[in-house]
Amino acid sequence: MNDLALFDLDHTLLPIDSDYEWGQFLVRQGVVDAGEHQRRNDAFFAQYNAGTLDPVEYLEFALGTLARFDPAHLKDLQAQYMRDVIKPAIRPKALDLVRKHQDAGDLVAIITATNAFVTAPIAREFGVEHLIAAKPELDERGHPTGKLAGTPTQGHGKVTHMHAWLDGLGRPFDSFARSWFYSDSHNDIPLLSVVSHPIATNPSEKLSQHAATLGWTSLHLFND
């Protein structure tokens, strides 16, 4: 591998928030209490945008929803969500950006605060082998229990999880001459501050201001 290229997912490679949209999808399917789920989903989304979200509280809300369904139903919902919501949202410019790094021989990963149940099929759709995401705790059947396994992949947690992943591959971070991280969110400033090439991608207002102050590159994928 030549260099390292890391991508946030929601509002970075996707023009939507896959976690929030999964909740909305469940509401539309009529498989969760619409009023209560909508209220909590909206409240957590507002907290995320404000930088006040308790990641464990949110993740266990989302993972608790997964635990309600039997495995076959959950698999069917996941496939329908990919077909109806995610695939139509994937833009060629985002695919091209990922492929540019893959074609250069870079080690590519998606690193996201969203749980792996929602994001693993999305990473596969982008052709990305490596996914660093919040892990659902699984029971002996491999079914989500509703709890988080390990620690959140958010904020400084992304830095910690990145180092653990790379050390597991035998490629410590300092072995890469160049590293990129593409993100839209001010919540990702810790990891953006670590890489050699921080790219504020479709940045929020807070990240845009921070990037401008530090002279970071800004990239807008979804202006078409």
Automatic annotation (TrEMBL):
InterPro entries: HAD-like_SerB, HAD-like_sf, HAD_hydro_SerB1, HAD_sf. The keyword Protease does not apply. Pfam families: HAD. GO terms for molecular function: hydrolase activity. The keyword Repressor does not apply. Keywords: Hydrolase, Magnesium, Metal-binding. Signal peptide: none annotated. It comes from the Bacteria. This is HAD family hydrolase. It comes from Telluria antibiotica.
